Amino acid sequence: MIPVCRLEDLPAGESVRIDTTPPIAVFNADGELYAIDDTCSHQDASLSEGWLEGCLVECPLHAASFDLRTGQPTCLPARRPVRTHEVVVADGVIHVRPAAQEDTAA
């Protein structure tokens, strides 16, 4: 589990980037926390710098949109999903458990 920040430091409508390899973006979507790969599957743009609307984040580069709950793209130009990651809050601190990468899956 990777500690991200205190819960009160990520208000609704905001996001934060974790500098892991690959980077992960954590979003507070109206009080629900989600974590996805931070890099758009269409081109190398940071999704944590995108626009959040409900459970969707829009890539700031070409307006591809992803569902934070599933990682699935909801419109072109993105065609491939991004990974989702488990988010846990313990003692007021947000933690992320990175999903296994495809090439390291058991």
At a glance:
The protein is mainly beta and 106 residues long. It has no helices and 9 strands. The protein has strands at residues 2-6, 15-18, 24-29, 32-37, 51-53, 56-58, 65-67, 84-90, 93-97.
Kindly describe this structure.
With about 110 residues, the protein is mainly β. About 0% of the residues lie in helices and about 40% in strands. It has strands at about 1-5, 15-20, 25-30, 30-35, 50-55, 55-60, 65, 85-90, 95. Strand 8 and strand 9 form a beta hairpin. About 25% of the residues are buried.
Which runs of at least 5 residues are low in confidence (pLDDT < 50)? none
Estimate the mean pLDDT confidence: 94
Approximate helicity band: under 10%
Spatial strand sequence of the major β-sheet: 1-9-8-4-3-2
Give the helix/strand layout.
Elements: E1 2-6, E2 15-18, E3 24-29, E4 32-37, E5 51-53, E6 56-58, E7 65-67, E8 84-90, E9 93-97
Antiparallel strand pairs: 1-9, 2-3, 3-4, 4-8, 5-6, 6-7, 8-9
Q: Characteristics of this structure?
A:
single chain; six-stranded antiparallel sheet; three-stranded antiparallel sheet; mainly beta; 106 residues; globular
